[in-house]
Write a structure and sequence with these properties.
Protein name: Fe-S oxidoreductase
Keywords: Iron, Iron-sulfur, Metal-binding, S-adenosyl-L-methionine
Strand order of the largest sheet: 3-4-6-7-8-9
InterPro entries: Aldolase_TIM, Elp3/MiaA/NifB-like_rSAM, MJ0103-like, Radical_SAM_PqqE_MftC-like, rSAM, rSAM_sf, TRAM_dom
Radius of gyration: 20 Å
Helix content: 25-40%
Pfam families: Radical_SAM (PF04055)
GO molecular function: catalytic activity; iron-sulfur cluster binding; metal ion binding
Strand content: 15-25%
Oligomer: single chain
Shape: globular
Bound molecules: iron/sulfur cluster
CATH architecture of the largest domain: Alpha-Beta Barrel
Length: 351
Amino acid sequence: MREVVEALGLRLWGRVWGRPVYLVTEPLPLIGVIQFGVIDRGTNVLQVRPTTICPLSCIFCSVDAGPRSRWRQAEYIVEPEWLAGWVHKVAVEKGVHVEALIDGVGDPFAYPWLPRLVKLLKETGVVRSVAAETHGETLTKELIGKLEEAGLDRVNLSIESLNPEKARKLAGTPWYDVRRVIELAEYIARETSIDLHVTPVWLPGINDDDIVEIVKWAYRIGAGKKWPPVTIQKYIRHRYGRHPPGVREIPWNKFWEKMKRLEEELGVRLTWSMDEWGMRYAPRVRHPIRAGQRVKLVVAGPGWLRGEKLAVTMDRQRLVTIVAAKGLEPGDIVLARIIRDKDGIFIAKVV
Ligand code: SF4
């Protein structure tokens, strides 16, 4: 079984919090699932996902990451050369230069080869800028230096409170030290060529005042050298996410009203056009499969959530997640129906 999995491009790399970590390599395709690889949502921005791992367990985490995950059964890290190669392939097929946003269902700064990935992306010739998201816990001056040298253009920093005690509670992690994150964020903004974009998640009823403090802080320290300085993220309840007690999800119109009110009260901007982000619509990459279709798939290994399997199309061009996949083993060839296809992320059920 191990040989089958490795031949498909999944290698058991270690374990974290009792879960296996798989190294994803050639020839496993890197488009088709949410947890790693490349996601094209029809713009010039490509989401680039190198790892699912995150050291924190934020109590509002929409993707149930970290040590306290309840739904995950496996974690992944992707070999950087293979990932950059897929970004190149997708951009060429789209026919545009792209902005690479390194994000994911984990914290990209927990990826051991982040500077290397940034450098490889810049070397593809099709990537105009590279940004990476983080909650900042694994930031160090040394890592920031390496990322600057590799050509990282922007850090998108999520921070939900500047108060150490509250930040620890929100991060679900007793050792989380927001003072260190603040210090390093200020260092990025003031002493490097990397831009800082601050992206707090607003948890209505929990961090309303903290959000105001964070916005003022972001503007004060000089975030937004080239891109907008701050964007407030809306809390959205996801089925497999974590839901802090007492926090309701508010409708989008109420959210935008709140943003407008805050902009007036604070005299700063919090909402931005696509243009200000240098973002525009671009042709989508064409997929060889679509919703409703029956396809033959090879089971490659475990999916990221319990009950799921990671599978690959027979032509090795797309990844597919098989749900309700009990009893399937790596190497099995199954006939499945694609039951969901959104932005080239495929979910299938065996028929
Ligand atoms: S919200 Fe981000 S930093 Fe927090 S647990 Fe989830 S992935 Fe990790």
